[in-house]
Every structure is written in structure tokens, then in C-alpha cells.
């Protein structure tokens, strides 16, 4: 099966080879999700990204926070599965790369593993990607942020943070 | 809970021929007079007229057949089922997010109902630069009028929602023009969910008007079926090859394959998809114009917070506009822009604002008091605004390469400033323009200085599009366009293209009525050529 690369130009792929050497082929064969399920590595990346992106929005109570993150990861997997194959492959490649130490350091500029990194370190990484002069890093920022924001607010349970009451009910037509 | 009727459910019960997508596999071979690819604005108008002429039609749509009983006003359901690429189709460099429909009815099922005739200045440019001598206001007026009557396009008499009224009041304060937008609705409930599929069938989209008319006359509709490629032999299409697809667009393994043989083919898959089908078919392109000059009306946005509830999700979207900034300069001068106020829903809002973390949380908490403005940049009228080019990825799927030139981004900067000024004039407490480096401004003076210094680069400036145009342009000679002025392909004699891809430039206004009106003319002429009969759109 033909694999696609993040930019469609092989940039991330060649970056992976440059960074990971012979390991690249292995990394790029380890999808961040499969069959609608995020891999453990993919979940780790997105759990850290979501904590950072949704800081101030996620519930503060520890148990509710954990439940909200878990539910978010479920919605994210559903959203990823709905993407066209080409886009799935691109996102998959990005996440797979970010899940490796060299990829994480190069793209996100994050020295610690995702699960161990404090929230402010992940936020500093996101900010560096967001304002980077490298197109690839800005693209990665937008992919991570937009997937997170979109999947999180897909659920009516999150709408209270927005003060959004939900769709107006459609009253039955008069008899 | 509702007793609203669903015209699609009723039509299927009457025996409409709809196949694919779980409704029975289409046969491996089909014959008809005309195969129509797509079911959106251009396809719908064409289908009604050609079926009225007694022609046997097969309509091929990649998206699903969804209808009012499916439309729950939920973004989480609408984007995956009704939009191209889950509403997140992007240009090649990911700098522009494109919202385009992919369902029966195409973008008309999910658009925001804004209806404008093609502006006079745009038509004049086409006559002058593309030799489209017959494209004048007077010549097209009857075709627009009939389309307007058919689709109940007229003034929207309810008061604008607060989101739109802020645009009106801000413009009034600044002394610039603003006016009401006509809408294609009948008995609209003013819910504000047009973009998620109209749950009350008030929007007169192709889904509830022309496509049902064609199906009632015996047309066949293949859904969740992709037009893969044409067989082209000696300047004629011999057949169209189609495949069943899964909801995410992947070809269904072991799914139906259908070869359609028709006397004539009408391609109306929308800009990006229509040129891509021709590219997959290795269609002749001796002048290198196929897929070039694809336009987007690149959109930049500004969100303002007020001291009162705006509730941008409530009520009809986009009912007020201002063309002030389109009319300042000549059409081929510095790029101009149209201002409108879009509907606001959680996912669209959360992904469209800038930032993350506590900064974003603060912006999200302001949502009920927020007004959003859009500026649609009128691309395609200047040498430094050549638009984008469609190309194929390795798997044959299309991709639009659209470089955001300095010329376009100069307009984006002016547009951000215009919107911020208008929002402060309307009483905004703070304004967040769509740029990653812009803080929340608390005064027009601060915004003016700040916006002047922003680096207007792709992926720092938030850019969107909901209007894809061009790529199979009409022109008086083959060197300047893919199509003859009558919509027939210059090199393929039994192929017409009838969708937004036929425009030689962007429109400079929301394009749906431009497609309806111009295709009304092209398809009426085509019906006469193919059947010898004079037909017209139904009265309403």
C-alpha cells in the first residue's frame, strides 16, 4: 500500500529518515491508530496535547478531568477514522513521528517524554511550533490544536464552557 | 418529536430510483441519455431541465443521501456526513481550510442561503478578458429571475439576528454601505442551522427542489458512488467508470463498479473535484489550463466581544453584507473584499479562533457575547492573484495548491483592520482578529497599530474558504479556458461542465445564485440541442 507523507512531498518522511535512520521505516509502519483505536503512543501524545490546549477548559476536579480526557480520546479516534485515507496517513505519520524521542525533540522541541512533561513545558512547545519560521512546525501545531479543539467540542457535555445551550428544539407542527 | 414531513422519505416511498449506499448495488453497466456527475447547484438545475426534456438521466453522487429527518443541527454529525473531507479539506500547504459539501444537494444542502446575482463588474471583466460576449446583466437577467422564482430567492423579512445587526450598526456608524442579503428559503424557522442541513426543509436547496423533480421523472441517482474516470476516445467520452465508496471516501473493497454509457456527460462535481476527474481521465489539455485559476474567495475573520448577548448561533445566518470594500478600487486594482457575519457553532468557533490554553479558554468563555465577521477576498482579477492549481495525489485524489501571495495577503491585512474598526464602532469591548500573533485588542487605535505590524504569512494568518470556483473556465477561445462559452469542453464534444468550476475568476459574492442562473442558461440550451425541446425550470 502506498504511504503518503505529511506534506505530500515527503518532507516529514525524509525528516524521519534523517532523524531516525534505519528506525524510520519501523516508526512509519507503527500507526498512531488503527481500526478506529489510537495506539498507546498516540494516546500519550494527544493526552498531553489536550491537557495543554484545553487548559482552563477541562474540568478541574481530578476524576472529572480524567473522564473528560478519556472521552475526548474516544471522540478523537472517531474523528480520525472519518478522515479520507490520505489525510489519515498524513496525520498518522505526524503523530507516529511525534511519539518518538527524536521526532518529538525536532518537531515539538520538547525534551521530556509526553507523559512526563509538565503542562507548561508542553504549552511552551506548542507556542514554539505555532510561531516557528518552519512551515512544517506551524502545520503540525495547527493539526494538533484543531484536532483537539474540534474533537473536544463535538460533545454536548462540553458546551457549558461555551455558554452554548445546544440546538433549538424543533416544536411539533400544530395539529 | 416532530410531525414535519420529509420529502426524501416520501419520494423513496413513491419509488424513486436511488441505488448505492445500502440501497442496493447499482448494476455493472448502465445506459442513459445523459450522465450527470454531482448533485449540487449546477447538477441540480441541469437535472431538472434535462429530465423535463424527456431525457433519461443517471446522477452520480459521491456523498450520501441525507434528509431532514437526519439533520439534527449537530456539527459532530454534519461535518463527517455532509462535507468534503469532514469539513477540513485543506490546500496543499494546509494554510486554508475549505468547507465544501459532499452529499445529495452538494454545497446547497449545507450553505448559509446567501443569494446574489453575479456582480456586473465581474461579468464585465469576463466579457473583456475572456471574450464571454453574451455574459451581460441584460442577457443573464431572465435566467437569474427564473432561478430565483424556482428557489424562492427573495428578501428576508425577519429582523437580522444580533450577529448580523452588529455588522449593520457598525457600518452605519462608519458611514459605509450595508444591505440585506436575499435568501433561498420558504417558510424558514429562523433556527440558524443552515450549515448543518436544514431540519425543516425550508432552505430551497437542490436536495428538496430540482433533484426530487428529476427523480419524480424517472432519473436514477447513484449515491456513495464516485465517478473515477472517463473513457475518452477521439474527442468523445465513451463511458464513465464509477466505484462504490465508504463514508470516508475510500473505495469499498468488493463494492460495486459501474460503467455508465451516455450520449452526453455533464460534469458538476464542484471545483477541485471536476478538474480532478478530467485529470484522472487524462483529458486533453493542450493549453495547460485545466485545474489552473482555481479561486477560493480567501476568507479572514475577526471575533469581537460585546457587553451583551449576541448568540451568533441563533437566527438566520448572513443576512447583512457590506460591499463597501469591494467598490473602493477598480476590480483589477488592489484586492477588495465583501463583509458578512457567519453563523457560530461550537466546533466551528473553537477551531476558527486562534490560540490555546488559558488564552483560548477566555475567548471560548466569551462565546455568547461574540460577533464574528468574515471578509471574502475577491481573487482572480489581477495578475498577482492567479488563484490555485488542482493536482492529483498518488492515489488520484485531488489537492489544491493555492499560494497566498503578498498581493492577496495585503488585502487580508486591510480586511482585518476594516473588520476591527467596524466592530469597535459597533461597541465591541475587545476584538480578536484571525492571526496567531494578534493579542486581544481593546481599542481601534490599538488594533490599527497592531494589525499594521502583523506578519501576514500563511499559517500565521487564519484563512478559510467556503467558495471554490474555477479550474474549468469558460472562454471564447481554447487558449484561455477549458470550456466554450456554452459550457461544452473545447476538446471533448459530448462533455459539458456545469458547476462553480466554470467561472473564469471568483465571483466577488457568494456563488450559489451565479451557478443557478448561468447553468440555467447553459442547461436549457443543452436540453434543446439534445432533445429538440424547449424547457424551463418549474415556477417554484
List keywords for this structure.
heterodimer, A: 175 residues, mainly alpha, two-stranded antiparallel ribbon, 59% helix, B: 540 residues, alpha/beta, FAD/NAD(P)-binding domain, Cholesterol Oxidase, domain 2, 2 domains, eight-stranded mixed β-sheet, six-stranded antiparallel β-sheet, 24 strands, 20% strand
Structural topology:
The complex is a heterodimer of chains A (175) and B (540).
Chain A: H1 11-20, H2 23-28, E1 33-34, E2 37-38, H3 40-53, H4 62-82, H5 85-98, H6 101-108, H7 119-130, H8 135-152
Antiparallel strand pairs in A: 1-2
Helix pairs in contact in A: 3-4, 3-7, 3-8, 4-8, 7-8
Chain B: H1 7-14, E1 17-19, E2 29-37, H2 41-52, E3 57-60, H3 75-82, E4 89-90, E5 96-98, H4 107-110, E6 114-115, H5 120-130, H6 137-150, E7 153-154, H7 162-174, E8 179-180, E9 182-184, H8 210-216, E10 220-222, E11 225-233, E12 236-244, E13 257-267, H9 273-280, E14 294-295, E15 299-305, E16 320-322, H10 324-327, E17 337-340, H11 346-352, H12 357-365, E18 370-377, E19 389-392, E20 398-401, H13 406-425, E21 430-433, H14 444-453, E22 463-465, E23 469-470, E24 495-497, H15 512-531
Parallel strand pairs in B: 1-10, 2-3, 2-13, 3-10, 5-22, 13-24
Antiparallel strand pairs in B: 4-5, 6-9, 7-9, 8-16, 11-12, 12-13, 14-23, 15-18, 15-21, 16-17, 17-18, 19-20
Helix pairs in contact in B: 2-8, 2-15, 6-15, 7-13, 13-14
Helix content of chain A: 55-70%
Greatest interface and its participating residue counts: A-B, 52 and 54 residues
How far from one another are the termini of chain B? 29 Å
**Estimated structural class of chain A:** mainly alpha
| Rg estimate of chain B, integer Å | 22 Å
Q: How many domains of chain B, as an integer?
A: 2
Taking the sheet with the most strands of chain A, its summary is: 2 strands, antiparallel
CATH superfamily of the largest domain in chain B: FAD/NAD(P)-binding domain
Q: How does the overall form of chain A come out from the CA principal axes?
A: globular
Helix/strand-derived class of chain B? alpha/beta
First-last Cα distance of chain A: 58 Å
Round the mean pLDDT of chain A to the nearest integer and report it. 85
Q: In percent terms, what proportion of residues of chain B is strand?
A: 15-25%
- Provide the residue-averaged pLDDT of chain B: 97
Oligomer: heterodimer
